[in-house]
């Protein structure tokens, strides 16, 4: 399990996933708080999933994400990686409730 605070260009994450697989990990999952996913990140993540370095990616919705059609187009010829987006709404609601 790889944990990162910001997933921006995905270079570091994909490199870490490849190294985990090289060292014998059977499956690699990525959990990132802020999924910026800028530049070529979708294509890099799609390639890492396609070659088997990454199984699944989880990000939160702390920043707006690309629409699904844009995301798929940015992956090029490769299928879009499996990604789960977790909402932070309950966390924010609880914080507001405790302040009020």
Give a short summary of the structure.
The chain is an alpha/beta fold.
Structure explained in plain terms:
This protein has helices at 11-22, 41-50, 68-74, 89-99; strands at 2-7, 29-35, 56-60, 83-86. 40% of the residues lie in helices and 22% in strands. It has 4 helices and 4 strands. Strands 1-2-3-4 form a 4-stranded parallel beta sheet, covered by helices on one side. It is an alpha/beta fold. α1 (11-22) runs parallel beside α2 (41-50).
Strand percentage lies at 15-25%
Helical fraction: 40-55%
Extract low-pLDDT stretches: none
Count of runs of 4 or more consecutive helical residues: 4
Structural class: alpha/beta
Return the string of H and E elements: EHEHEHEH
* Cα gyration radius (Å): 15 Å
What is the count of β-strands? 4
Shape designation: globular
Largest sheet, if any?
4 strands, parallel
| Strand order within the widest beta sheet | 1-2-3-4
Mean pLDDT: 95
How many angstroms separate the termini?
A: 37 Å
């Amino acid at each position: 399990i790889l944990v990162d605070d910001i997933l921006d260009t995905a270079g570091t994450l994909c490199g870490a996933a490849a190294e985990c697989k090289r060292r014998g990990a059977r499956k690699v999952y990525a959990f990132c708080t802020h999924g910026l996913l800028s530049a070529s990140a979708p294509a890099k993540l799609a390639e890492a999933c396609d070659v088997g370095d990454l199984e699944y990616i989880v990000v939160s919705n702390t920043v707006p994400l690309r629409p699904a059609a844009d995301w798929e187009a940015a992956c090029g010829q490769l299928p879009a990686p499996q990604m789960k987006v977790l909402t932070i709404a309950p966390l924010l609601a609880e914080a507001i409730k405790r302040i009020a």
